[in-house]
Design brief:
By secondary structure, this protein is mainly alpha-helical. Helix content is 53%, strand content 0%. The chain folds into two domains: 27-115, Transferase(Phosphotransferase), domain 1; 116-160, no CATH class. Helix 3 (49-65) packs antiparallel against helix 5. The radius of gyration is 23 Å and the shape is elongated.
């Protein structure tokens, strides 16, 4: 009997421990979340599309550099500095200039100055077309012009 009760309790504990849980965090916990990808508005309780754009900019930096942003700084210090607009990412010169420019725009402290995702997609399509054209021109016997570049798209900033 005792073995059956113990087995039943263990089974109940296992089910409770492995059951999916819904969590709703208003303020991110820096011990569980990388704080820099979160815009200042998130720390101040005003998340929205502009804070998602900020996170996209930080993710772009991470993907292009292969590094974690400010990994050697205490997460609480990063949260405070980001909320005050005191930290910015250094974009290496090896990252294509249009992508660096877009990343800097996405991670601006003032959310009103950040592009929208529609503008980001447009800029990325333009960069993609430019890169495809460059590769096609550099490839012997490659396609040329718009066909290789996948057509044209409009950038959202002049000269982007």
């Amino acid at each position: 009997m005792r073995l059956a009760q113990a087995s039943s309790r263990l089974s109940a504990r296992h089910q409770a421990a492995t059951a999916p849980r819904a969590t709703h965090t208003v303020v991110p916990d820096p011990t569980c979340t990388a704080p820099l990808p979160l815009a200042a508005q998130v720390f101040n309780g005003r998340a929205g599309p502009a804070s998602d754009v900020f996170s996209f900019g930080v993710l772009t930096w991470h993907v292009t550099t292969g590094q974690l942003p400010y990994e050697d700084i205490n997460p609480f210090a990063v949260m405070l500095a980001v909320s005050k607009g005191e930290l910015s990412l250094d974009w290496p010169s090896g990252v294509p200039k249009p992508l660096r420019r877009l990343g800097r725009l996405c991670t601006q402290h003032d959310p009103k100055l950040r592009p929208t995702f529609t503008q980001i997609v447009s800029a990325l399509l333009k960069l993609d077309a430019k890169l495809r054209k460059t590769v096609a021109e550099a490839t012997p016997g490659g396609a040329s012009g718009k066909a290789a570049a996948g057509g044209s798209s409009r950038g959202w900033r002049k000269g982007f």
